[in-house]
Amino acid sequence: MPAMLDKRMSAADIVAQLHDGMTIGIGGWGPRRKPMALVREILRSDLKDLTVVAYGGADVGMLCAAGKVRKLVFAFVSLDAIALEPWFRKAREAGTLDVLELDEGMFQWGLKAAAFGLPFLPTRVGLGTDLAELGGLKLVHSPYADGEALIAMPALKLDAALLHVNRSDWRGNVHIFGPDVYYDEWFARAAAKTYVSCEELVDRMEDHYPAEAHHNIVERSFISGVVELPGGAHPSSMPPHYGWDMKAFKAYADAARDPGDWAAVAGRFVGPSEALYLEHLGGKEAVAALALPIF
Amino acid sequence: MSEHAHDITLAELCIFACSEAFRGNGEVVATGVGPVPRLAAGLAKLTHSPELMMTDGEAYLVEQPVPIGPRAYDDRKPAGHLPFSRFFDAAVWSGRRHAMVTPTQIDRFGQINLSFMGGTYRQPKTQMLGVRGFPGNTICHPNSFFFPAHSPRVFVAGEVDMISGVGYNPAKRVAGGHFAGVDLRRIVTNLAVMDFGGADHALRVVSLHPGVSFEAVQAATGFALENAVAGETALPTAEALAIIARLDPHNIRASVIKDNPPARRAA
To answer: Phi, psi at residue A132, to the nearest 5°?
Structure first.
């Protein structure tokens, strides 16, 4: 029997594939389904000068607070119940970030342009607002009889994408499910390499979940590395496995005011290792017990 | 006026007035962001406009509006599915949606801001949420607004600090651009109901909440309003109040407007 394709890596191996100055897409949405364990691994590394592309939550807040971000591509940064992400807000008001602010729909359109290898995709979205002028977005005109002026949403090409998924096998056959999978599949297709952490890792997906292949919403040719990190979305939500940890988000938000210094609190929100991080929470069982959020 | 007017709160009057924005919209997704707009969308669906579509606030389409506030996770009955991954294709960019939201600022052109105030793009004085979906919403489908605290800080003089949503400003019309989708409907505040039916889409007051004068609304607005007042804003019916109470069992609506005043202002 030929050797099986094996994409297993450690979180540290994954971060070692990333380099200073890279453009990194982060899946999920606000405080939901974020690959936070991989983000924490970046925070434990020397990686810097990143361009971060995300529907932002605490992933963006933490990376900004730690000074990892040179440029941010975003439509919002929010923790839902805590509407304004306090560490992102601090970084913005300090003027330390280059930014490209986009509409949520334009954002996914840019990922799709990148996925299809196109320089841009046209859209009406952004016309009549300040987005185009502030972001340097250009117009194109329809070559057909209508001649319509449209914004050319540039491809959001990613050097790497990070996702937290429900399951994967060693080969990168991922299962992504729950009420909403956001634009995770398009982050993967927009990226040169995609690295996933997962709640559950199996050797051969077909031997374990053959009836659930419709959850494989992005093909393994887009997946370069996999690591099993149960609880890896904490403190964001990961339905159906666990909800977000609003107590942890509150503590994190409070720390932006007092002491307001990331270096002084990074130990609490990142820690020296993922094992210790989980241990402080009471283990992965404590994460699994977090109630699913109500909207 | 109703004999129970003294029991009806201003928030309930606003919910009732907001629900009118969704009347006769057809089979579109009614999105109310925040307690008052969300209760209004639910009320509209359960009374005059059952054809409306709406979500549970997450990703499922429901035919029975989901009560707001704490509830059991599975206490919803999905009839369909509208995750974000389909949302822009199917609801926003298709125009099959009417959203009611609360921006931080709005100006005389109906331009709205949710991004930042003061400073620059590179270094805002006050960073807010970001433009979210406002640019797409406002060029693709109808939008209405609810403001719980009508003031010149919200209804700003001049223009909003960062134009996050398209309005009727002729100076922002790009030649050859298609702006037919711009459709700003109703504004409900703690003082009055307004629409964009004035000259060149000027904002006009169409009804005043009980005990509020046009002058008071004008004084709380940073630009000139047209006076098209046709009467007092209607008080919610007993049926509407019962539905509102059922959709908001924890009385979250009481926290929306400062001091939760009654619908009729004390003389």
So the answer is: -65, -45
H-assigned helices in A84-223: 86-94, 104-115, 131-135, 184-190, 205-208
Torsion of CA B20, B24, B28, B34, to 10 degrees: 0
Using CA of residue A225, residue A226, residue A229, residue A234, what is the dihedral sign?
positive
Q: Do B116 and A92 lie within an 8 Å CB cutoff? A: yes
Phi-psi region of A147 (alpha: psi -120 to 50; beta: other; left: phi over 0): left
**DSSP state for residue B233 in the 8-state scheme:** P
Residue given tokens 């369909």 in the structure block: B80
The whole-model pTM stands at: 0.97
Residue with tokens 């651009």: B177
Q: CB within 8 A of B111, min separation 6: which ones?
A: B159, B160, B163, B165, B166, B167, B169, B172
Each residue's pLDDT tens digit, A209-231: 999 999 999 999 999 999 999 99
A105 reaches B (C-beta below 8 A): yes
The answer to whether B70 faces chain A, any CB pair under 8 Å, is yes
User: Which ranges constitute the DSSP H helices of B155-221?
Assistant: 214-219
Contacting residues of B for A129, CB less than 8 Å apart: 131, 134-135, 138, 163-166, 172
**Residue contact A105–B130, C-beta within 8 A:** no
Assess contact for B15 and B39: CB atoms under 8 A: yes
Residue indicated by tokens 């960073």: B127
Residues of A in contact with B99 (CB under 8 A): none
Which stretches of chain B are DSSP H helices? 10-19, 35-46, 84-87, 134-140, 214-219, 238-247
pLDDT tens-digit profile of B185-225? 999 999 999 999 999 999 999 999 999 999 999 999 999 99
User: DSSP H helical segments within chain A, as ranges?
Assistant: 11-16, 36-43, 58-65, 86-94, 104-115, 131-135, 184-190, 205-208, 246-257, 262-269, 274-281, 284-288
Long-range contacts of B87-93, Cβ-Cβ distance < 8 Å, separation of 24 or more: B88/A104, B88/A105, B88/A108, B88/A109, B88/B133, B88/B136, B91/B28, B91/B29, B91/B141, B92/A105, B92/B133, B92/B136, B92/B137, B92/B140, B92/B141, B93/A105, B93/A125, B93/B136, B93/B140
